[in-house]
Design goal:
With 160 residues, the chain is mostly helical. It has 2 domains: 3-126, Arc Repressor Mutant, subunit A, CATH 1.10.10.10; 128-160. The protein contains 7 helices and 3 strands. It has helices at residues 3-8, 12-30, 37-52, 59-66, 70-82, 104-124, 130-159, and strands at 57-58, 86-91, 94-102. The protein has a 3-stranded antiparallel β-sheet with strand order 1-3-2. It is globular.
């Protein structure tokens, strides 16, 4: 492949990455004055997951759900605790088994974050029809599935 072929192609992965960064930056700017900004901006998705759970949450389960290294997850949870967004509460008097519980501050910050995300998405989708939104969502989902298949293909190739 030569440079002309590369340069003449529309690189959708790059466009998706650029859009993703723009959205994150817009949400972060909107959250600038909110307390707990560092955790909300970088790990808000995990806080939102905690808020939505109806069953008890334990750190060891999260490792399997999100496929995060134990140390990374421990760091995120430590940040959440430090910023008073969650607390770890002993279960059944067993000091070793601790359930993750979202604090009032964590719930409030989650609501602020979700409102900011909705505001940014509303601006982002301005002048885009419902049909166009459906097509974009369908195409992005297919692209994600294809990349997952490719990753599996690469893994299989390595094993040969």
């Amino acid at each position: 492949m030569d440079h002309k072929e590369f340069d003449s192609r529309t690189h959708l992965g790059f466009l998706c990455d650029c859009l993703s960064r723009e959205v994150k930056n817009a949400v972060n700017r909107g959250l600038k004055d909110a307390k707990g900004l560092s955790a909300a901006s970088k790990y808000g998705w995990l806080l939102a997951y905690f808020v939505r759970q109806t069953e008890p949450i334990f750190q060891r389960d999260l490792e399997q759900i999100f496929h995060l290294p134990k140390s990374t997850l421990a760091d995120i949870i430590q940040i959440f605790e430090k910023e008073d967004l969650i607390e770890k509460v002993p279960v059944d008097g067993d000091g070793r088994k601790k359930q993750i519980v979202v604090t009032t501050k964590g719930r409030e910050l989650n609501l602020i974050t979700e409102a900011m995300i909705m505001e940014v998405e509303d601006f982002m989708m301005e002048d885009i029809s419902e049909e166009e939104k459906e097509v974009v969502a369908k195409v992005l989902n297919k692209m994600q599935q294809n990349v997952r298949k490719y990753k599996s293909h690469i893994m299989l190739k390595k094993e040969d």
